[in-house]
Amino acid sequence: MNKRIPLAGLSPELEMLALSIPGFETPEQARKERVFRIASLSTYTGACYKALCEKLTECHPKYPCNSAACPECHRRYRLQMTREVLRLCNKTHKWRSVTLIFYQDAFTDAEAPIWSPDALIARLRRWLKECGFKYMVIGGFEMDYHIDTGLWLPHFHLITFNEEEALNKLRNRMKNKHNMSTRKSVISRPMFDTGIDNPEKQISYLFKAIWWRVESYKENKPILINNKSIKPKRRTKKFRLRPKQHAHSLVMMDKQGIQTLTFMYKVRKYGDHLILK
Predict the structure, then answer these.
(1) pTM of this structure
(2) Residue 113 — pLDDT band, cuts 50, 70, 90?
(3) Is the dihedral of CA 37, 42, 48, 50 positive or negative?
């Protein structure tokens, strides 16, 4: 990669927004991650890896590649989307952060090359309509690889208006028997939602572009509550994907594109702005 390529610095407005978000990557950190991804892709000989490696290598602030796998391009997109969602949500505090996990749609490494999120995204959009959501629902689609099951697990991180009846109907849809009985001895939690306490941080989290390896473990000692011993809880930790999976995840992100990995309901993107439908 040409080290003389300037960093993808953004407008003062967006860089100030980045500084207001705890832990948000700097232009230098985004460049470092791009160099890492290029090196990762370059170790594999497949045509898809070579093509993406070349795309990321040639990306330049004046002519960006706009790949979902490019951390510098995605940093710009993520800040633009965060700014726009903040603008739309600032009119009221009645918004919720919602995570939806589709256990029943998990798939293996062998299935990954032909898997597409299109049907899942269409299903979620249909459910939102049938559940009666009247306001904007927006966020990101992601996949994590779970070591204990050997499966990729698709999920969405979303922001939605606090429509209690619609949220309850959606929760019932997510708790269908197919989505709740996929893992032995593990209780599925397909939907959870919280309030918006830190808007900049929570909204920017929706549009991050990195998929993780998830490993589960149990706490070493039972917990005592009111002199009663409670069984150790199952916990999870996230790590960077192993090399081949990491390279393949980048190819999958690039193939789907930033627009597909962004879920929008009753809102559309017009240039750099969001417009409510």
Answers:
(1) 0.91
(2) confident
(3) positive
